[in-house]
Structures are given as structure tokens and as C-alpha cells.
Amino acid sequence: MDATLNYYSSSSSGKSLSSPPSPPTTHSTSRRRGRSYNTRRRRPHLLNGNFFRRRIFGYLLLLPLLFLSAVITFVGPLSAMLFPNPLPGSIYRSHEIFQNLLTDIQSDTSSGIQLSDVWRQKMKLTEQKPCPITSHQYLETGIPDQYLIVEANGGLNQQRSSICNAVAVAGLLNATLLIPLFNFHNVWRDSSEFADIYDEDHFIATLKEYVNVVRELPKELMENYNFSISNIPNFRVPAWASANYYLKQVYPVLKEQRIVRIAPFANRLSPNLPPHIQYLRCVANYEALRFSNSIITVAKMLVNRMTVDSSNSDGNYVSIHLRFEEDMVAFSCCVYDGGKSEQLEMDSIRQKDWGDKFKRKDYIIDPVRNRINGRCPMTPLEVGMMLRGMGFANTTPIYLASGKIYQADKNVAPLRKMFPLLHTKELLTTPDELASFKDYSSRMAALDYIVCFFSEVFVTTQGGNFPHFLMGHRKFHYGHAKTIMPDKRKLVVLLHNTTISWDEFKKEMQVMLAESDHKGVAIPNIKKITRKNSLYLNPFPECQCLKKPNLFEEEY
């Protein structure tokens, strides 16, 4: 047998070999059906039945092993290419981690942080310099007989930015400023006018030494436009226009026509201005703009009720600016845990509020990149986990500043489970007390702004104009922003790891709180002012010379 196999093996290699000697022949006689057979020992052949069956059986045994090897070798890399592991922080898994850690969170009885001890850093201001000399040309030449009209668009604090910029432009062009008009927008849906939000008398009186402000335009001038401001030609100013642009492009038109209308006016002035014009922004934002008496009255009531409900923490409370409203979630194009129904609902809201903006070919929607870059609104659950991790006890009083939260019943429930003492302006008031505010988003936002201003700890979760201005006001009045500013890029990575322990998470959150403490007193060394480091966020050193008001009414 071995010789035979060696023969076939050698033959198959293509070498010519002589025939092996014939085996000895034996004869035996067998009788079957009358016939005799001469039987001899034969060489097994590849096609011999028994031999072939044994070979096939062996191959069949090898096939599963070969298949398994192929799966390991090829399917693994192929599946990695077709279904790669998600990048850290790219997927919303916070709800899974919350369920994993809920027992640890609820059983964490370590001593909670005292609200009065959260902020330990102190601001180190340099010697106060005198305010820059502001041009008072009209005091010498009389009240300017040329008028500036602006239409402030956007929400509460985008309008605030436009008002401050309008004061600066009026001073730059030596123009009389008409009380700014508010543009109605289908997203904010607020028809409020200037006097509904701010104290007009205080605004005019505070600015009288710098810029002349009027409520109405002269009749003889309006006759030329059939007594309609909309008939006045609109001057289209590019975004972030420089002071030089206004002097060379806008001023000649103003001098010739005596009137200029600029709409829209949001973001129409550069952050960098000559010091005496920049100072007008400081005066407008930190002194001239005070909320109307109707807003202050209700805001005082809210602050007092929050203080009473925070008696266990010496009247101190935490305020959270939560941007998990329907429109904000839709605008962010981020994906959460709602599946197909969430996607369809967000598509519907985007279409209703912004038309085909998100369907344009040049508009890239990338939820993964948005989340990794920290651009997705934090959910109430994520905010609650962060605060518990930082050391805030479940007895901490919380004020939630927000519009209509997306799927509020579902999404607020985890936050309330972690912090039962959760308040909103709706919960602190009766329907009658909020009746004159309910259909006006800017007035409601103004109430939130004031209640957040007086909190011991303010938490910003998404950025935007609201926290931008509020942090500046808190830094201006308290010498510390007293604001938790989450590192959201770091946070999404932590909340992507479903095996993270509660102790690990707490350690990272406490580092984040310490970083916020340092940022709260930091005075950036600014060589060039940009939108991200404007005086609305960082009032020092540019606005340092202003006298700080002490009374509540003067602050607002």
C-alpha cells in the first residue's frame, strides 16, 4: 500500500518511474452461479469505492474547520470595514449608563458639597483705570439732526447685543438713535416691543451724556416717507462691519438723507472698536439696559420663592440653563434615543421653522461629528449625572431655566429622580401670575435671566447668547462668573463608556468643577477682541471703570 501511494505521489509530480515489480500471484477458486473466478490481490485505485469513500469522509471532516478558519480570517476584517466600532463619544448612550449607575448614584451618601463653598478662586483685578474719553460732539454742536433706525432681530439676548451695538454706532456717526425696533421672527414668535422688555426712561436718561435717544422721529422728516418707517430705504450692512466701514459707507448716506435704517442689525458691528466707542457698549449693557418694572416685579417674586424653598442651603440654589427645547434639538441635528419617531419629528420641526434650509446640498448634517465636538444640547439626564458626580447632594434646590423641553415627561424624569427639589417658573407661580408673559418668549426668558443671575451656581449646557451675557453680568457684579462650564467633548466620551464606574465618573466631574472655578475669575489677555471673548462675556478690563450699582432695581 505504501509503495502504491508513493508511486501515485511520484507520478503526479511529473517524474517518469519504472513499473514496480508485479506482486506474486495466488490462485483461488470460487464458485458462484456455476462460474469460476481467478482472484488476485489488486492495487487500490483512486476510484476504488472504499478508498474513495474514506478520502471523501476525511475531506468532509475538514470542511467545517476550513469554513471556520475562513470566517475568522476574512469575515472579521470585512465586518470591521462594513460596521466599524463607533468613535468614542459619537453615540448617545447616556441613558444606558444612567441605568447601569443608578443604584450607585442613589446609594451615594458621601457628604454633599455646600453651595456657599463651591467657588474658591478670587479675581485679581489690576488697578482701575479711568474711563476712556467719550466724544460728546452733540453737546457742543447741539442735538444731532440725523437719525439712526435699527431693527433688532433674534431672541432676548441677540436683541440685547443689537441694542448695545446700535448705541455704539450712533455714537460713532454722531446720530440720534430711535428706540430700537424689535423684529418678529417665526421661531421666537414674540411681538414684544422695547418698552415691554426694558425700562425706556432709564435707557434714555442713562445715555443722555453720550448718545441722544428718542421715541419718535420728527414729523417733517417722516412726511417724506408717508409716515411709515418701512418706506425708508434699508441700508444693507455686512456682518461684523468695521468702524471704518460705517464712517466711509454709511455716514455719507446719513449726512445726505438725514436718516438711515439698518435691518436686520444683529451682528452688524465688529467686536473691535476704538476705545471711546467700545466704552459705549459697556455703558449700554451694564448700566442703560434695565428690565421693565413688570418683568422685575415677577422676577423678584420668583427669586424670593426660590430663596424660601432653599432654606436648607441658606437660601442658595443652583440654576440650570437647559437648551433641550424642541427647536434647539431640531436645529442641532443631533440624534438621541428616540429612534425613527424622533427622526421624523425633528424633520417635521426643521421643515416648519426653517423651511428647506437643512435640505440644501451645501448643508452638511453630521450628528456623529456634532456630538464628538460637543455641539449637541445636553439632556436633563446628562446634566443631573454631571451635578451628582461633582458632589451636589440630591437635596440641592434646582431652578430650571428653559423653554418647552422636548418630550418633557420622559426626559425630565431622570433629573427629578436625582434632584427632587426641582423648580421652574411655571411651578413657582400661578397661571394668573404668568398670564401676561406666557405667549412672549423674550419676557419669559427675561424672568429666567434674573432668577439665574441671583443663583449661587449657574450651569450652562449649550452656549449661546443667554449664558454669554449672563456670565458677563455675574462676573461684572460678583467678581466671579460662578458658572459651571462643562467640557462637553470630554463629557460625551465618558458617557459613551458603558463600563465606567461611578467612582471614575465622579473623579472626572470634580476635575471639571475645579476647572470652572478657575475660568470664572480668569481675565483673558486679549490682544484682539473676537465674538468669543467680547466684553459681554468678559467685562474686564474694558468695562472696569464703570461704577457697580448696588440696588436690585439699578442692576436691572
Automatic annotation (TrEMBL):
* UniProt-recorded Gene Ontology molecular function terms: glycosyltransferase activity
Residue ranges for the region (Disordered) are 1-40
CDD domains assigned to the protein according to its UniProt record, in alphabetical order: O-FucT_plant
Annotated Basic residues bias: 29-40
Q: Which residues cross the membrane?
A: 56-83
Q: Where is the composition biased (Low complexity)?
A: 9-19
Which InterPro entries has this protein been placed in? FucosylTrfase_pln, GDP-Fuc_O-FucTrfase
UniProtKB keywords: Carbohydrate metabolism, Fucose metabolism, Glycosyltransferase, Membrane, Transferase, Transmembrane, Transmembrane helix
A single GO BP annotation from the record? fucose metabolic process
The entry's family comment says: Belongs to the glycosyltransferase GT106 family.
What's this protein's name? Answer: O-fucosyltransferase family protein
To which species is this protein native? Lactuca saligna (Willowleaf lettuce)
